[in-house]
């Protein structure tokens, strides 16, 4: 056995030089988006009285350590080291030019004392909390107006202990919108890497009104039945690069957003230049999602090399009447999906409204969407594309798509109010996408 493995290996090493091995070095990464910084000034949470026994509340220690970083402004910034241990704490704010470094075996764990959890103002592009009117609970780890912040380490854990919040949601006893696990607002040059995110109360990682954000080598975990535990939600943000991560949660794995109905339209801040690559995961909702809050618009999204298992929906573009906003130039390619209810869904009737003041004439626009090289097995329904009568989806290109069912007769595609083209799609898509004079849409995008 060992011998045959060895000879297989030798055989491979003999072939490797013949292949274009340089392509291995050419793997595209997010590295250029934000420079990684090495910081000479290092402090440890234990210098500020931090105790990693899982019982002591460390909120003061985090506040004092971060206040020290903010006040002294050491050249090149400061690294805050979290040694192995479990550090229970209330939510806290980060500051600019810092690295939060979790050692192997370090856990920063959120208190479950929801009564003392701080409230902050709603996001202007949402007009209210996403779940309930009024303010919202501050994210567990928060940053507003920051630059040059890194959260990294040796795959330590940031644990939201979200079950108390999920239960309040289930019992309808929440007073305000649940906290995200990590939120950066109005910030730039952010790197989040080599960290595990566990049991977020609500969305896991939420960059909003941000630019230049890299999220890579992260693991995000929450139970399959945990409500609204989206993995990563770039929201009204640009130049966001997400790669090499594993996400298994109770809601969309990655969902690109840009504000909600009349508030999002008025705020008018789009999400654009978003890259998502080499992400693997599973969820009862969507793998790669755009929306449903897209009122500021979403442009130039590339998602590629995605592996999805046990999903509700593989790829989901979703918006609604009253949203407004333009969703365009979206490319999703090289996706493998297995055991999925719906392979591809693009729909104009998804998601709720903040209130009844939304403008029914604010119709979303969806155009220039390319979905190619998709292989799905055990897919119950291959595709569903439902545009709006008064705002049909245009230039939708489907190419090289194979979405096989479980057994028995193939469930057909369903489409309405959509135009575009389809090349090499099996089972054959709806007539709206097969008219030959439109194949230009698809060939341009190669
Ligand atoms: C943390 O930031 C929020 C929002 O910027 C602010 O309202 C709050 O006062 C800050 N908390 C502390 C302890 O500085
Ligand atoms: C942390 O996890 C990533 C995968 O997400 C892995 O590539 C990396 O080697 C791990 N790092 C350490 C120090 O264990
Ligand atoms: C469309 O988006 C891609 C990223 O997926 C980008 O490279 C390209 O420049 C965009 N095209 C236009 C016309 O903006």
- What's the overall geometry? globular
Bound ligand species: 2-acetamido-2-deoxy-beta-D-glucopyranose
Give a short account of the largest sheet: 19 strands, parallel
CATH architecture descriptor of the largest domain: 3 Solenoid
Tally of contiguous helical segments: 6
Number of domains: 2
Structural class: mainly beta
Number of strands: 25
Radius of gyration, in Å, reads 23 Å
GO molecular function, one term: polygalacturonase activity
Keywords: Glycosidase, Hydrolase, Signal
Pfam family, one: Glyco_hydro_28
GO biological process, one term: carbohydrate metabolic process
Descriptive overview:
Belongs to the glycosyl hydrolase 28 family. One of its GO terms (molecular function) is polygalacturonase activity. Keywords: Glycosidase, Hydrolase, Signal. About 10% of the residues lie in helices and about 45% in strands. The longest helix has 14 residues, at about 1-15. The protein contains 6 helices and 25 strands. It is mainly β. It has 2 domains: about 30-225, Single-stranded right-handed beta-helix, Pectin lyase-like (Pectate Lyase C-like); about 250-445, 3 Solenoid (Pectate Lyase C-like), CATH 2.160.20. It binds 2-acetamido-2-deoxy-beta-D-glucopyranose (3 copies).
How is the topology of this model organized?
Blueprint: H1 2-15, H2 22-25, E1 41-44, E2 53-57, H3 59-72, E3 78-82, E4 85-89, E5 92-93, E6 98-102, E7 106-110, E8 119-120, E9 136-137, E10 141-144, E11 147-153, E12 156-159, H4 163-170, E13 182-185, E14 188-198, E15 205-208, E16 211-221, E17 238-248, E18 254-256, H5 261-267, E19 271-290, E20 298-318, E21 326-347, E22 365-386, E23 393-403, E24 414-416, E25 418-426, H6 440-444
Parallel strand pairs: 1-3, 2-4, 3-6, 4-7, 5-10, 6-11, 7-12, 10-13, 11-14, 12-14, 13-15, 14-16, 16-17, 17-19, 18-19, 19-20, 20-21, 21-22, 22-23, 22-24, 23-25
Antiparallel strand pairs: 8-9
Residues 93, 120, 138, 142, 144 line the site of one 2-acetamido-2-deoxy-beta-D-glucopyranose.
């Amino acid at each position: 056995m060992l011998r045959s493995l060895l000879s297989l290996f030798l055989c491979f090493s003999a072939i490797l030089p013949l292949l274009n091995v340089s392509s291995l070095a050419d793997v595209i990464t997010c590295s250029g988006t934000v420079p990684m910084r090495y910081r000479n000034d290092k402090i440890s949470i234990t210098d500020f009285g931090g105790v990693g026994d899982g019982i002591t509340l460390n909120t003061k220690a985090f506040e004092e350590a971060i206040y020290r970083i903010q006040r002294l402004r050491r050249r090149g910034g400061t690294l805050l080291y979290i040694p192995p241990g479990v550090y229970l704490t209330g939510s806290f704010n980060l500051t600019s030019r810092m690295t939060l470094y979790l050692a192997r075996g370090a856990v920063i764990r959120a208190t479950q004392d929801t009564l003392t959890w701080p409230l902050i103002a709603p996001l202007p592009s949402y007009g209210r909390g996403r779940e309930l009117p009024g303010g919202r609970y501050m994210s567990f780890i928060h940053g507003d107006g920051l630059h040059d912040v890194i959260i990294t380490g040796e795959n330590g854990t940031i644990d939201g202990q979200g079950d108390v919040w999920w239960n309040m949601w289930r019992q309808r006893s929440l007073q305000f919108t649940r906290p995200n696990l990590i939120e950066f607002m109005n910030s730039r040059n952010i790197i989040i890497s080599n960290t595990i995110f566990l049991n977020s109360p609500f969305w896991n990682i939420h960059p909003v009104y941000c630019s230049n954000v890299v999220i890579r080598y992260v693991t995000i975990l929450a139970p399959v039945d945990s409500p609204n535990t989206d993995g990563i939600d770039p929201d009204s943000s640009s130049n966001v690069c997400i790669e090499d991560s594993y996400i298994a949660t109770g809601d969309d794995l990655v969902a690109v957003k840009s504000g909600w109905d009349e508030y999002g339209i008025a705020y008018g801040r789009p999400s654009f230049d978003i890259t998502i690559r080499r992400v693997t995961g599973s969820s009862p909702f969507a793998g790669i999602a755009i929306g449903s809050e897209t009122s500021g618009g979403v442009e130039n999204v590339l998602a590629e090399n995605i592996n999805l298992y046990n999903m509700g929906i593989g790829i989901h573009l979703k918006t609604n009447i009253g949203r407004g906003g333009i969703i365009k130039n979206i490319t999703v390619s090289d996706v493998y999906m297995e055991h999925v209810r719906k392979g591809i869904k693009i729909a104009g009737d998804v998601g709720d409204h903040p209130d009844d003041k939304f403008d029914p004439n604010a119709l979303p626009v969806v155009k220039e969407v390319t979905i190619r090289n998709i292989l799905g097995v055990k897919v119950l329904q291959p595709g569903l594309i439902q545009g709006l009568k008064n705002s049909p989806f245009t230039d939708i290109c489907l190419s090289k798509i194979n979405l096989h069912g479980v057994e028995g007769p193939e469930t057909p595609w369903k489409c309405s109010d959509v135009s575009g083209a389809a090349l090499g799609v099996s089972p054959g898509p709806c007539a709206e996408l097969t008219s030959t004079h439109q194949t230009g849409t698809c060939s341009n995008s190669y």
